[in-house]
Amino acid sequence: MKRWADKLQAIQPFHVMEVLQRVKELQTEGKDVVRLEVGEPEFATPPKVLQAAHAAIEQDLTRYTPSLGIPALRQKISQWYEQCHGVQVDPGRIIITPGASGAFLLAFGILLDERDRVAFSDPGYPCYPNMIRLLGGEPVAVPVEADDNYQLSPKKLDGVDNLRGVLITSPANPTGSLMSGESMAELSQWCRKRGIHRISDEIYQGITYTQKACSLLEFDDDAIVINGFSKFFAMTGWRLGWLIVPADAVRSVEILSQNLFIAASTLSQYAALAVFDEVDRLRQQVLCYDQNRQVLLAGLRELGFRIPVEPAGAFYIYADVKPLLDRLAIPSADELCHRLLEEALVAITPGRDFGQFRASEHVRLSYATDLERIQEGLRRMAQFLAKVG
Ligand SMILES: Cc1ncc(COP(=O)(O)O)c(C=O)c1O
């Protein structure tokens, strides 16, 4: 008798977890590792959020909330869209979820029947194909390169048949690329003409450097939009996100939410009410990321990393290391990451965590850390490259 589901064979681990494991071991040995692999802000939760959480505990706000979330938070998020994107979103269409990850489960849950196909970009966020597969759908990874600004477009999707959904991410992980409003509108129209659903992961919204990121809702009121409190709002561990769906999907989302989670964390929801009063502080943090971004970009380029598309959002740089690998006779980006960790005590993420397309020639570096640590990381990488080359 088989013990666990066959479909688990197709669910990939996060390879960066192996890097994380090794980082922990090195740290336990007392080694100082520069960590450029992490995907979360180093900034602490804003103080007003902590105060609101304490107040919620004192008021014993510890029972389940409605499955769709507390009305006050859904209202605040609706106002946020009005303020940031000039769009009116009925709070009734906003569902509070356990992280953006929970929102994905609900979105794919209401969308996918067996073998329904959803396209997304490769490189892209690694959980997409795994969640689509788990829910019975078929992930369709579409290779994108620097010339495509690492984003999907009608041109890229031409010839990709039988799609149920197209998933876009802007700003993107791992490339930090932004999709312009024009491109969003064009892609949305292309999909609508063909009866294809549009899903937009906007979790890095607010963390942008050259221009504001658009929300797909500005062009497409019928799209499914996912966002959350983990990135710009710096609340990763509170596990809180949201999902926006067309009005006729709300009841189905509610039923799924009741069955899958009952509701998002009550304390986190009350705490998050206060985060909208901390927006000035959060915007300051984005200025710090920008400084980090510029230093890391210049430093990496000097070291021979190729970065054809400057990241305009999120806090990652996706670098082509093919020229470096050739020069140093290192066979793959995996091996480079391994050696940088062991020999230079710098942790970065290998490209294969983000897909298959030219993955062994790319790495991702995160700059959601202190500037001083980034400078130290660059120094160590320079020493390593001088030693090996
Ligand atoms: C593109 C993207 N979407 C979604 C998530 C998940 O976010 P959450 O912490 O809200 O579940 C991440 C986390 O790194 C991400 O990079």
Q: Structural class given helices, strands, pairing?
A: alpha/beta
Q: How many strands in all?
A: 12
CATH superfamily of the largest domain: Type I PLP-dependent aspartate aminotransferase-like (Major domain)
How is the biggest beta sheet arranged? 7 strands, mixed
Q: Taking strands numbered 1, 2, ... along the chain, how are they ordered across the largest sheet?
A: 2-8-7-6-5-3-4
What portion of residues is helical?
A: 40-55%
How big is the Rg?
21 Å
Number of domains: 2
Q: Quick one: overall form?
A: globular
Bound molecules: pyridoxal-5'-phosphate
Runs with pLDDT <50, length 5+? none
- CATH architecture of the largest domain, by name, is 3-Layer(aba) Sandwich
What is the CATH T-level topology of the largest domain? Answer: Aspartate Aminotransferase, domain 2
Strand content: 5-15%
Instruction: Count up the helices.
Output: 13
Kindly report the average pLDDT value.
96
Assigned CATH class of the largest domain = Alpha Beta
Order of helix and strand elements from N to C terminus: HEHHEHEHEHEHEEEHHHEHHEEEH
